Amino acid sequence: MALAAALAMLALTGCATNTLQRKGAATVFDLRLDSELDWARIKGPRQELWTIDGSKLNQLRIYSGVKPNEHVFMARKEKASKPDGPWFRGGMRADELRDLILDGLREEGAVNVSGSQLRPQRFSNVDGVRFDFAMTDAGGLNYKGTAAAVERDGKLTALVWLAPGEHYHDRDVVAVNRMLDGMQFAQ
Questions:
Q1: What Cα–Cα distance (Å) separates residue 73 from each residue in 5, 61, 167, 173?
Q2: If 92 and its partner were Cys, which of 13, 96, 100, 125 is the partner (CB 3.0–4.6 Å)?
Q3: d(CA 162, CA 176)
């Protein structure tokens, strides 16, 4: 949830822009996504937050160009004094990419974080990974989500979608899965 707060602050200070993304094709950084849903799109440098009903009710986080030794959610760079953390490293296996994203969620305060259905996914001509997850936020709300991650040209692209399991997840999961399954690189 730290990303939502950071992007909201950027939007307030003018460093991020907020636009409506109508259903259909969209280009996000070097990605092409085709969505069946309308989204509010908050743009920031190398990361975006998309939401339908507000970030506490559903959010799609898009991270592009995460560099080696950089935090999976681009929160900060690795330091020698703090080597533990969800730092991206080139050449990570599928299970390591899953754990990297799950550890990033834990670091933001999520508890009871678990991943499931780890599976390979091809994005254009690049091998990546998809998986589902469940978590509880610091306020006790149970979320379900799905993620896509792929290393391309030594950098990580990650998409993380989450919504409360009680209603919003089940309402949108099929459309979000189709969008992530069809994700392609534009360049």
A1: 13, 9, 26, 22
A2: 96
A3: 10
Specify the pLDDT at position 80: 54
Cβ contact 170:17 at 8 Å: no
Beta bridge pairs of residue 151: 156
- Report pLDDT digits (tens) over 13-43: 345 678 888 888 999 999 999 999 999 999 9
93 Cβ partners below 8 Å, 6+ apart?
Answer: none
Closest CA to 168 of 144, 148, 146, 147: 144
CA distance 60 to 176: 9
Domain of 40 in residue numbering reads as 2-11+26-160
DSSP string over 149-172: EEEETTEEEEEEEEEETTTHHHHH
Domain membership of residue 180 (yes or no) is: no
CATH code, domain carrying 31 = 3.40.1000
In the predicted model, residues of the chain with pLDDT beneath 50 are 3-14
> Is residue 187 situated within a structural domain?
no
Number of other CB atoms surrounding residue 85 within 10 Å: 15
Residue 37: how many CA atoms within 13 Å on its side-chain side?
21
